[in-house]
Amino acid sequence: RQRESGGEVFDVFWVRVGDNTPSPTRLAEALQEDIAHRVTNRVSAQDLIARQSTPPPWSVRRGPDVPTHISVDNNASLRYTVVDVFTRDRIGLLHEIARTLHQLDLTIALAKVNTEGQSVADVFYVSDADGNKVHDYERLKRLQRVLYDRILALHARAEVP
Fold first, then answer.
1. Residue 2 scores a pLDDT above 50
2. N or C: which terminus of the chain has fewer CB atoms within 10 Å of its end residue's CB?
């Protein structure tokens, strides 16, 4: 979401690579190129996700079931509503979460993204269109429900051979 007053976005990426991953330098170059193409609208997020035609080994290995759980908390931060997402990792998961938050008219001020094996524990600090916490109980419940449903739908699509 762009603000009329302008603004800057700052992201820090820490990436741990596996044995079959290209060199860290090549990986960083590819990531930088993908971000540049996305920011300049030369490629859509859906196209970037679709490029992953061969699922990585971690996504096809059967592991322990990771239940999906979404929680919202207005006490963890002075300025933001904190949304915790715990689920199984999937290609496109982070995009789906960010897209859903945007569609719910929320701004992500900070995201802490953590993936260990097949488990995701992501934290999003969000505010409403006016820059405030989300205080309305029904809106908080809708946020949880919509995010949960979208994540389950993503998992269901990933299960289809």
1. no
2. C
Residue 99: pLDDT band (50, 70, 90) is very high
Establish if 1 belongs to a structural domain: no
Pair 122, 43 in one domain: no
CA distance 21 to 29: 13
- Which domain range does residue 25 map to? 19-51
Counting Cα atoms < 13 Å in the Cβ hemisphere of 130 gives 4
DSSP 22: P
Distance CA 144, CA 152 (A): 12
Beta carbons of 121 and 114 less than 8 angstroms apart = yes
Q: Classify the phi-psi angles of 158: left when phi > 0, otherwise alpha if psi is within -120 to 50, otherwise beta.
A: alpha
